[in-house]
Amino acid sequence: MENQKRTTIYDIAKKLNLNASSVSRALSGNSNVSETTKQLILKTAKELNYRQNSMASNLRKGENQTIGVVVPRINQNFFSNVIAGIEEVTYQKGYNLIICQSNESYEREVKCVDTLINQHVSCIFLSISADFENNDHLKSIADHGIKLIQFDRVDDTMDTYKVLTGNEEAAFEAVSHLIEQGYKRIALLEGPQNLNIFRLRKAGYLEALKKHGFPIIDELIRENAWTRELGAKATEDLLALPEPPDAIFASTSDFAALGVLDVAQREGIKVPQQLGICGFSNEAFTEITQPSITTIDQFSKEIGKNVANLYFQKMKKGVNIDEQKVVNIKPQLIIRSSTLKNG
Amino acid sequence: MENQKRTTIYDIAKKLNLNASSVSRALSGNSNVSETTKQLILKTAKELNYRQNSMASNLRKGENQTIGVVVPRINQNFFSNVIAGIEEVTYQKGYNLIICQSNESYEREVKCVDTLINQHVSCIFLSISADFENNDHLKSIADHGIKLIQFDRVDDTMDTYKVLTGNEEAAFEAVSHLIEQGYKRIALLEGPQNLNIFRLRKAGYLEALKKHGFPIIDELIRENAWTRELGAKATEDLLALPEPPDAIFASTSDFAALGVLDVAQREGIKVPQQLGICGFSNEAFTEITQPSITTIDQFSKEIGKNVANLYFQKMKKGVNIDEQKVVNIKPQLIIRSSTLKNG
DNA sequence: TTTACAAAAGCAATCGATTGCTTAAAAATC
DNA sequence: GATTTTTAAGCAATCGATTGCTTTTGTAAA
Fold this sequence. Notes:
- 2 copies of one chain form a homodimer.
- Chain A has a 6-stranded parallel beta sheet with strand order 2-1-3-4-5-11, with helices on both faces.
- The first copy, chain A, has helices at about 10-15, 20-25, 35-45, 55-60, 75-90, 105-120, 135-145, 165-180, 195-210, 230-240, 255-265, 300-315; strands spanning about 65-70, 95-100, 125, 145-150, 160-165, 185-190, 220, 245-250, 275-280, 295, 325-330, 330-335.
- Chain A is of the alpha/beta class and about 350 residues long.
- Chain A is elongated, with a radius of gyration of 26 Å.
- In chain A, helix 9 (about 195-210) links the parallel strand 6 (about 185-190) and strand 7.
- Chain A contains 12 helices and 12 strands.
- Chains A and B meet through helix 4, helix 5, strand 2, helix 6 and helix 7 of A and helix 4, helix 5, strand 2, helix 6 and helix 7 of B.
């Protein structure tokens, strides 16, 4: 049962004393086949348990109904939601998804892209890894006639379709909210600056301070604090300052914000009265903590759907010219207890 | 730049005045090619930006270094971790992953399997959907010479390789722990009984009660409570009983346990003093809630790795006979505040 | 120098489906 | 009834890489 050969259109043809081309036409719903033989072929195909060999079909047709996705980590909430969104659309279109994770490693990202090129995928949806070095691999995608859509973490210097969230605006809004609540010394936990998203979030932070006439205090800006542990560590340092902050915007992630909360609770600092906390991403747990954490929802699943739709509705049809190449998914500030100093 | 044809081995052959077969042999590291021409071919391949066409290669070789994965939902913590584990192993082996989600729909599950069969994948890793109806589609996988490994949610009646967590033992352990803590009336939130995992968890619950001489009280067993909302609803009903439970084992998920906690807090019931709560899955948030929730860690990423390793180390090599076909990943009870009545 | 043998390269079929083109058969028109 | 048109089916090349087999070339042994 294991090693039997799969039935091909030739098997069907032979059984019915027909030519393979007629079988192919019948199965693909093509015309040029009489209704009776068509039904006969369909019936026989079912009997013989026929399944089309996509490899042969794709090879001949020169197209591959497959899309490659490269993300830093599959099992990170944001990305798994994006993928779910992508899948929802591609499934409908009868496309397959090949998923790769770069594990935040540039080297692996390059290898993933290589594999996808070999696979002849129609398009690659990609979000760059944290130790992004250069875009040679991205350029080579186009060289092989494969389309590319970048999302979330993108290389700005490349002129590709992109799906983004308004990182800068969101950060601006979050910090403005903190200021409105009366916080005076607002610290920033920032991520690797080679990633556009973190650069933009920092820009939003600086802008908000500027707009409200707040000074920029370098010692309140902490680098690479994007896990719970690193967020906690940074918070300890910040709170040990002669003039500690009275609010912390963990622009890197909600996990960092959670680290902030950990330290605050450990040191008996009242949130939001003595310390305001704002995260980023609207992870499920932010709603559950005591106090619940103010954060920014990025509509990750929506991002995925948009990426996929961009491919099917625009790129695939070749509507390239005059097109807006960047889609922005507007994020939303979710205000919760951790920043409600004024109640 | 977009529509140029990709270079093939024929292009390389033509440029070097060689035959395509030599090029093929050189590129695959085959012997029967002199070292000099081999180097020449490799150099030219690089110059012409050659990439192997996997479709053609796979078609000819009759094998496809691709594995299909079908899960109910990609963006569910447990499954995204399993996938991450799978990917870690398959990536190393140079295999690709095609990922599909059934969205808990039997119909979609069937379609996913169909697609993967058409794609000629080498193996399918599958966890069945909640409204599983029958295993015709699973049987047809073998009919097409494709291997199958079931994990977590499996169809017991099929003799396939399986990777499981000790659901029954875990549930038994959890309920025993509740009993040891002095809880007397332990309720169960159970999931759809057409899924093996929920049947087993219920069995573990019943066993533990039996072993400790506790009566089985039907009104304490609630069906289909596997979301936060449904968990909350069930809890309201349970607490409204003349003799309400003093502990609830949310065997379905931590989300259900969270629903229980919601209601307890709303109604001013003290956890763990008046009500013990135990969840299932060790979702990140269970550690964060106040009080933190006792739960069961399933080592989901480990499950993924085991599934993939099972394929590469056993199935692929055809070590079928005398082999243990079931791998059990032992889960671990994580005891936290929500059940520590005795401190 | 001739023969024997190994190494290197070429030839051609193959994997399975698709498709432009040709031929055969059936239906419609005059 | 003859001719044109439509419809149905067959033929054969093609997609790109692989591989068993044959031929050619090069080298070693006789």
